[in-house]
């Protein structure tokens, strides 16, 4: 199956991307591999294309674009985005996937998802992170070079215009993953549902932390072994992996949440609580809790409660899984080519149909119109909530500026007052240039902001900020909850359409028309 990863980079040296993609690197250290003469070794097989640029001058062209739009000047600015599409190793032998074919597929995907951006599209056949699979790197400049038509996944104002920066939002990533899934199914390649939450969610950041931690632990253990001692630990665990392992062990022997909670605390010193309908775990070496979302669905409230229910002989045996889309066998290339695969899809479709019917009954949708009206109303509600959320975030930025300049104004007011009374103003300004400049900057900003001359006190501004932050936090939760609801509604709606379509008999050809001919 193809999977999609995203990495953002603040490195202003775009040449580093070209070097990594062209030359062999040590996956553990990240350093170039050189020959006996100290020269870089070109990768054995790769395919390279440029999108809106010459691939060999990608670095210079990106720098020119940034300079033209006066972007990416600060060190903390995100200079580029790196997307990796990794194909299933089995596709090479079972579905005749080659590097050239993967490059063609990925280039089409890049054109579709990154219009107007300068991008490097490079496919490697030597495996990624020792996985042995064909994979494609898509590296884009964060600044859009040319304006394009606005796309459905764009939720920021002017995002389609030239000079605006790319943002890898949840909405964009969902669209990208859906596009990859659809293309892989069209090509007859192995594919899983990338939009379904992962059972064990391991981010790129956690993967790299585990990799570096293991490398450091191996170095320490080597010294311990050389001293004639035995290492106490040979496997490095991230804090999240420690939690996952502990949860797996405790849930296997627990019949209720209370029992599970007690065992986690007694055996692993891990505290678990329920907050806003989700579980949160506290690692013994942390002050801040880790939510179930960061660990994966296997460690969430819904899955664990279902596990406890299944251990109860009086509990309902059937537990509904997450809704998945019914696959159309008429358009699925792989199903047409493989009867065994088609059989598996049919069984999966039956399960999803059953889940859809249960979902419809649970939510008391009497007619298909009820379902569609609820879906439409939820979409409108989400759009309104997102607009309100965006406005409140904008208000928070303005409020932060008010607090900043108000504090800056009062902090330097006394110095400026002394400056006004000073006999030798030139000398005083030179000695207190920084404070006077900050005061004048704050004064001018406040004058332009408060047209009536009435300033809000710093205390009231702070109270307003606290209230607004609480409102934004509440809206974030509401948007997240509504998005999950909308995803189930949309899946149920599409599945109901598919089920009803299957029940419509094929039209019989009219004999009358044949006779008339």
Automatic annotation (TrEMBL):
Keywords: Coiled coil. Residues 45-146 form the MobA/VirD2-like nuclease domain. It comes from the Bacteria. InterPro entries: Endonuclease_MobA/VirD2 (IPR005094). It holds the Pfam family Relaxase. Residues 368-402, 458-492 form a coiled coil. This is Relaxase/mobilization nuclease domain-containing protein. It comes from Anaerostipes amylophilus.
């Amino acid at each position: 199956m193809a999977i999609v990863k995203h990495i953002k980079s603040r490195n202003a040296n775009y040449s580093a991307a070209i070097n990594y993609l062209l030359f062999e690197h040590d996956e553990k250290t990240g350093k170039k591999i050189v020959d006996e003469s100290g020269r870089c070794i070109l990768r054995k097989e790769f395919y390279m294309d440029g999108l809106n640029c010459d691939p060999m001058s990608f670095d210079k062209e990106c720098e020119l674009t940034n300079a033209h739009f006066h972007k990416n000047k600060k060190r903390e600015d995100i200079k580029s985005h790196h997307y990796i599409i990794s194909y299933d190793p089995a596709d090479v032998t079972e579905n005749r996937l080659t590097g050239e074919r993967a490059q063609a597929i990925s280039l089409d995907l890049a054109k579709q998802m990154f219009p107007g951006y300068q991008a490097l599209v490079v496919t490697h056949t030597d495996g990624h992170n020792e996985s042995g699979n064909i994979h494609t790197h898509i590296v884009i400049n964060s600044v859009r070079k040319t304006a394009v038509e606005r796309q459905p996944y764009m939720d920021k104002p002017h995002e389609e215009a030239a000079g605006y920066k790319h943002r890898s939002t949840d909405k964009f990533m969902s669209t990208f993953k859906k596009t990859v899934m659809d293309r892989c199914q069209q090509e007859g390649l192995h594919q899983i549902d990338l939009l379904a939450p992962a059972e064990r969610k391991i981010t790129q950041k956690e993967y790299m932390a585990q990799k570096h931690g293991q490398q450091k632990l191996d170095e320490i253990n080597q010294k311990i072994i050389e001293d004639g001692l035995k290492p106490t630990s040979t496997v490095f665990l991230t804090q999240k992996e420690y939690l996952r392992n502990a949860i797996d062990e405790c849930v296997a022997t627990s019949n209720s949440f209370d029992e599970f909670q007690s065992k986690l605390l007694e055996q692993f010193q891990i505290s678990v609580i329920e907050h806003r309908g989700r579980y949160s775990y506290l690692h013994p070496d942390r002050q801040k809790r880790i939510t179930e979302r960061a660990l994966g669905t296997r460690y969430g409230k819904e899955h664990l409660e279902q596990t406890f229910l299944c251990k109860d002989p009086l509990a309902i045996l059937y537990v509904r899984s997450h809704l998945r889309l019914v696959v159309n066998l008429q358009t699925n290339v792989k199903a047409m080519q493989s009867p065994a695969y088609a059989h598996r899809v049919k069984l999966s479709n039956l399960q999803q149909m059953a889940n859809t019917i249960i979902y419809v009954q649970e939510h008391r949708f009497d007619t298909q119109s009820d379902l569609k009206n609820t879906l439409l109303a939820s979409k409108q509600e989400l759009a309104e909530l997102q607009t309100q959320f965006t406005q409140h975030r904008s208000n928070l930025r303005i409020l932060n500026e008010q607090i900043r300049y108000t504090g800056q104004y009062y902090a330097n007011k006394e110095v400026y007052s002394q400056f006004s009374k000073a006999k030798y103003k030139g000398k005083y300004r030179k000695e207190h240039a920084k404070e006077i400049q900050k005061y004048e900057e704050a004064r001018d900003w406040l004058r332009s902001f408060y047209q009536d001359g009435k300033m809000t006190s710093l205390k009231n501004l702070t109270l307003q900020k606290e209230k607004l932050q609480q409102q934004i936090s509440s809206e974030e939760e509401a948007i997240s909850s509504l998005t999950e609801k909308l995803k189930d509604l949309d899946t149920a709606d599409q599945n109901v359409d598919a089920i009803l379509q299957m029940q419509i008999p094929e039209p019989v050809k009219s004999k009358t028309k044949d006779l008339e001919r």
